[in-house]
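Predict structure. Input: ABC-type xenobiotic transporter, 1483 residues.
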Amino acid sequence: MEHLWTMFCGEPACSDSDGKPCNSTFWHLTHPSSCINQAMIICFDILLSIMLLFNMIQKSSSKTVGIPARFRHRSALQTASAVFNGCLGLVYLCFGIWILEEKLRKTQTLLPFNWWLLALFQGCTWLLVGLTVSLRGNRLLKTPLRLLSILALIFAVILCVLSIFAAILNEIVTVNIVLNVLSLPGAILLLLCAYKRYKHEDGEQDTNENGLYAPLNAEANGSAKVDYNAQVTPFSTAGFLSKFSFWWLNPLMRKGREKTLQEEDIPKLREAEKAESCYLLFLEQLNRQKQAKPSSQPSILKTIILCHWKEILVSGFFALVKILTVSSGPLLLNAFILVAEGKGSFKYEGYLLAISLFFAKSLESLSQRQWYFRSRLIGLKVRSLLTAAIYKKQLRLSNAARLMHSSGEITNYVTVDAYRIGEFPFWFHQTWTTSLQLCFALIILVRAVGLATIAALVVIILTVLCNTPLAKLQHRFQSKLMTAQDERLKASSEALISMKVLKLYAWESHFKKVIENLRAVEYKWLSAVQLRKAYNGFLFWSSPVLVSAATFGACYFLKIPLHASNVFTFVATLRLVQDPIRSIPDVIGIVIQANVALKRVVKFLEAPELQSANVRQKRHMENADLAVSIKSGGFSWEENSSKPTLRNITLEVTIGEKVAVCGEVGSGKSTLLAAILGEVPNVQGSIQVFGKIAYVSQTAWIQTGTIQDNILFGSAMDRQRYEETLEKCSLVKDLELMPYGDLTEIGERGVNLSGGQKQRIQLARALYQDADIYLLDDPFSAVDAHTATSLFNDYVMEALSGKAVLLVTHQVDFLPAFNSVLLMSDGEILQAAPYHQLLASSQEFQDLVDAHKETAGSGRVAEVNSSDKHGTSTREIKKSYVDKQFKISKGDQLIKQEERERGDIGFKPYIQYLNQDKGFLFFSISALSHLLFVGGQISQNSWMAASVDNPNVSPLKLIAVYLVIGFFSTLLLLCRSLSIVTLGIRSSKSLFSQLLNSLFRAPMSFYDSTPLGRILSRVSVDLSIVDLDVPFSLIFAVGATINAYSNLGVLAVVTWQVLFVSVPVIYAAICLQKYYFSTAKELMRINGTTKSLVANHLAESIAGAVTIRAFEEEERFFAKNLHLVDTNASPFFHSFAANEWLIQRLETLSATVLASAALCMVLLPPGTFSSGFIGMALSYGLSLNMSLVFSIQNQCTIANYIISVERLNQYMYIPSEAPEVIEENRPPSNWPAVGKVDICDLQIRYRPDTPFVLRGISCTFQGGHKIGIVGRTGSGKTTLISALFRLVEPAGGKITVDGIDICTIGLHDLRSRFGVIPQDPTLFNGTVRYNLDPLSQHTDQEIWKVLDKCQLREAVQEKEEGLDSLVVEDGSNWSMGQRQLFCLGRALLRRSRILVLDEATASIDNATDLILQKTIRTEFADCTVITVAHRIPTVMDCTMVLAISDGKLVEYDEPRKLMEREDSLFGQLVKEYWSHYQSAESH
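Output follows.
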C-alpha cells in the first residue's frame, strides 16, 4: 500500500518557507498541493463522474422530458456556461499534458502520478459535467441534475478556499491555483443553468394543468406574432458578433437537423436584399446617370457598381486583411525554425509565436468568411435586379425586338446569364488579391533566397503569358458554345412545345435527330472549352513545381546556401500562393463567362420598346362617348418598311357601338386590334383610345393556376358578378364536370381544357374586368354552333350592351346584329357600313356571304324558334354550382408538385453520373493520378527536409533529386486533367441521349401534367451544369480532400503528439459536416425547384405579353415575378451563408491543430525534431487551413452541382409509349389501302385513377366515306381522334383499320400512314419548304403544286426567297388562316388513305374554309375523311355523322336520316345553328 502511495505522491520533499520539513497534519489537510488533498480531489472527480453517468442512465430509461418548442433554443446563460466550463476543462487537460511532457523530458519517468493525473482528471470531469449540464440539462431528470450541480458547487468552493489559502501561505500564484479559483464561477453558472431551466418547465406545466385548451388558445392568439418574427431572416436583427460568427444561422441549422426542411421553414430575406429594393435602387441610379448625361446611353455595368460600391469596398477590405494575415504565415514559420534550432531572440518566443500563429489563422478565417459572404450577397442582389429588369423589359419589348430575342433566349437570359453575372462579384476581388498575394510572396522570397527570386518571377510571368492565348481561345470557344447552346435550346423548346403535333405527324425521330445534330456541334465546342480548361489547370497546378525547380537551380548556380529556414520558408510561401495561382484559370473563366453574359443581357435591355403610352388617353368631357378614334392611320409591324401593314385607316367607335371586322385570311383584321392596343407602331396619321380595354386573343392564353385565378385576373372577388360572368360565358356546365369546379388547377397553357373552354375562360376574364372597350379576336371559332349562338346573344348583345365592341369574326351569321361592319382587304378598310347596306353596295362582301352560304350547304331547315334553349333555369344552375363549391377538396390535381429528392441520398447521384459510359474507369485514373501527385510532392519535401542540413549530400544531388521527383509528378497531373475531360464529355453525351430519348418517347399524358418550364430548366440550366461544372468540381473535390488529409498526415507523422488534438478535431469536423449537409442539401434542392418557378412565370408572361399589356396588369405580374425571385433567393442566401457557417467553424478547428502542433514543437526539448522536419511540418500546417476550406468548399460545390444530375435523372426514366416500330408486325407498305376503320367497344381514360372519357363506343367507318363527328364542347370528340393516333392507349376495346388492330403495330408505322390537320395549326422555325416537308421526301415541284392547291402560292411568291422564305417561332409572321392552309399542304403532300381534321375549320374565315373544303373534296375524293366539326355546314355533306355526348355514342347514321328523327342530337345541333343563322339575318 505504501509503495502505491509513493508511486502516486513521490518522496515527501516538502519544506515550508523556513526550510523545515512540513509534515504536520495541518499542512497535509490544508495545502492544496499536499498528496492527501490531491487524492481527495481525484476521488471527488470520480464521484461527480459517477453521478453524471447515473443521471444519463436514468434519463434514457425513463421517458424523455417533453420540452416545449420555445425552450429548445439555448439561452445566453447556457451558452456562457458551456463556453466557460468547456474552456476551463480544456486548459486543465492541456496543463496535465504539459506536466507529463516536462516530467518525461527532465526525469524520463512518469512517477509520481499525482500532479499530471490530477490535472487530467480535473480536466475530463469539468469538461464532461460542464458541457452536459449546460447544453443537455433539459434532457436530464430534474432532481438528480440539481443534486449534481449542488455537489459540483460544494467541490468548487472547497477547491477555491484551499487554493487561496495556499497562495497566501506560499506567496506565489501558480497556474493550478488560478484554475482552481476559476472553477467556482463555473460551478455557479452550472447551478443557475440547472435551476433556470426547470423554473421554465414548472411554469409550463402549470399552464397545462390550468386547462386542457390553454396552449391551443395561446398558440392561436400568439401564432401570428410569432410567425411574423420567424418570417424574416435572423440576419436582419443579428448583432455585430452574431454576424461575424454566423451565429444567427443556428436556428435554421438546428431545424434542418431535426426535420427535412420545407419551403415554409426558410425565413424571408430582409428588405435590403429583396428584388424590389434592389431593382428600385438600380432604377434610381440609372435615372441619375441619364440626367447627368442625357445624350448617351447609361452604362448598365457602371450603374450596378454604383448601386453596390459600399458593399464592394467593405468586402474588398476583408479581402485585404485576409491577404495580409496569410502572408504573415511564412514569416512566423521562419522565426519558428530559428527557435527550434536554438537561435530564439528571447526566452518565451516559442510560446508567443504559437499564440500569434493561432490568432493570425483565426483572423484570416474571419476576414475571408466575411469577404466571401458579403461578395455572394452582392451577387445575389445583382442577380435579383437583373432578373427583375429582364422581366420588366420583356413586358415592354417592341415587335421588332421580339423577333430578335425569342422566348427561349429571354428565358436563357434569366436562367443562365443573370446567374453567371451574379456569380461574378464573388470572384471579383480574386482578380486583384491574387496579384497582391504574389507581390507579398515575392518580398518574402527575396528575404529567403535573395536573387534566386528572379528565377521564380520569370517562371510565374511565363506561366501567366502562356495562359493569355489560352484565355483568348477559351473566350472564343465559350461564346461559340453559348451560341450552340442557344440553338439547341431553341430547337428543344420548339419540339417540346409542339410535341403533340410531332407525334401526330410521326416526326419525333426527325426532330430528335435535328436536336442531336445541334448537340453534336455543341459537343465540339464543349470539348474545346473543357480541354482549354484542362490545359489551364495543368499549367497552374504544375507551376509551383516549375517555380521551385527554377529557384533551387538558381540557388545552386548563384551559390546561395540552402538551410532548413530559407528552404521551408520558400516552400511554405509557395504552398500558400499555389491555391490562388491555381484558381487563376477559374477566375479568368468566370470573368469571361460573366463578360459574355453581361453583353447579351445589356443588348437585350437596350432593345427598342413599345411606344404605346400615347395611344391610350384619359376621357374628356367633349369626347365623353368616344372610345376609339383613328384618323388616316398607317401602322407597320416592321420598322421603315415601304408598305405599312395597315394603310389609310379611318375609324371612330363610340361607347355602346358594336363593330364587326371581317375579311379574308391575312387582310389585317388582327393587326387592326393590335394597333388599337398600341402593339403596332403608328407610322402615319393619329390614333386615340379612351377608356379601359379588355382583350380576347385569337389563340387563347391561359395561365397556370386555378380557373378562378384566370377569370379574376388580379381583380377582387365579387361573388354575384363572378357567377353572372360564368353564366354569360356558358361555363357553368363545364365547371360542374370538373373535379374541383373553378378551383381546378389548369396545366401549363391550359393543357387540360378543350379549345372551346380555353376561349370561354378568356371571354369570362374580359367580361369580369368590366372595361369600356372590348376587342374580341375571333372568339367563337373554337366553340360549337350552339355555344357560339348563346355566347353571341348573352355575351356580346346582352352583357356588353353598353360597351364599345370590336369583334373580328369569320361567322357571317352574326354580322346583321352589328351597328357597323368593316370589310378589310390587304391592310385597308374597303368599306364600313351596316350589314344590309354593305351587302347591297360591296361585291367583295357579297362574295364573302355567298361563300358562307355555300359552306352552309343547301340543306335549309325549317325555321325553329330558339327561345326554348334555356332549358334549366339559371337559378337551378347557380344553386347546383354553389352547392358544389363547398365540396371542393384539394386532391389529385393534374399538375403535380415538382419532384425533388428528400433527405440524404448519399452517393446515389454520383454513382448515376459515373456509371455512364466507362465513367468509373476515367474517374479512377484521375483520382489515382492525383493521389500519386500528392505522394510525389510529399516525398519531394521529405527528401528536402531530411537532406538539406546533411553535409554528406551535395547541393547538386539535393536539387537534382528534388527536380526529378517534381517532373514526374507533373506528368501525373496531365494524365489527371485529360482523363477528367474525357469523363465529362462521355458522361454528358450518355446522359443527354438518355434524357432526349426519354422525353421524345414519353406519352402525351406526361406533357399534359408537366409544366414546360420544368422540362426546359432541365435541358438548359441543369444540363449546362452537368456539361461544364460537374466533371471538374468532382475531381477538385476529391483532389482537395486528398490534399487536406495529406497535410494533416504530414503534421501528425512529424509531431505525433498532435494526434491527441487532431483526432478529436477530425471527428468534430466530420460531425459538423454531417450536421451542415442535412440543412444544406435541402436548401439547394429547394433552390432548384423555386428556380424553375421563376422560369415558368417568365415563359408564361412572354407568351401572354399582349394580353397582360391590354389589361394593364404589368405591375401585378411584375410584383409576382419579384415575389418569385425572392422565394428563390432566400434558399440560395441561406445556403451560401450555411457554407460560410461551416467553413468558419472548421477553420477555427484547423487553427487549433496548427497551434497545438507549434506548441508541441516549443514544449519538447530542442533536438527532438530536426529543423528540416519542423519546417516541413509547419509549411504543410500553414496551408492546412486553406486546404481544409478548399476541400469542404469543393465538396459542397459538387454536392450542389450533383443535384443537377439528380434532376436530369428524374426525367430519364419516364415510362415510354409503345415501340415506334414492331419489326415482326409491320403493316404492308400500301396499308391502309381501303381506309375502313372499325371501332369496337372503345373505352378511354387519361390516367388510371380518372373516370372514362369515352365509354364503350362501337361503330364502323367504311373506306372512302366522309365521316363527321359532332357533339357539344367537352363531349370527347378530340379524345376519339387521340385514340385513333394512339396518343392515349385504349383502356378497353380496340380499333382496327383495314383489318389490322392498330394496337399491334408500331406507333411510327401507324401515325405516318394517316394524314392529319390538327386543332392548333403549328409552324416551326425554319423555311416554308421545311414546314411543309421536314423529312425532305418531296421535290420543289411537288411542293409548289401543293401550295397552288392550298391557295398559298401567291403569298409565298410575294416573299423574295420563295420556298426558302422565313417562318419565325410559332409561325407568327403568317396569319392564323395561312398557318391552317400550311397544315392542309402537309396533308396533301402525304396523300394518306385516311385523313383526320380536328376542328381545323375553327380559326379561319369562310372563304378559306371554302378553299379547304373544296380541296379536301377533290383531292381526297376516294379517301376516308374523318372530321371533328364545330360548324354544322362542315359536316352537312358527309356520308355519315357520328354524334357523341358525354363520351357515349348517341347516334351514327346519314345526316339526312338523322335530321328526320325527332330526338336526334345532330338534328338539335342543326336546328340551333340555323335558328341562330336566321336570327342573325333578321336583325
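The chain has a mean pLDDT of 81.
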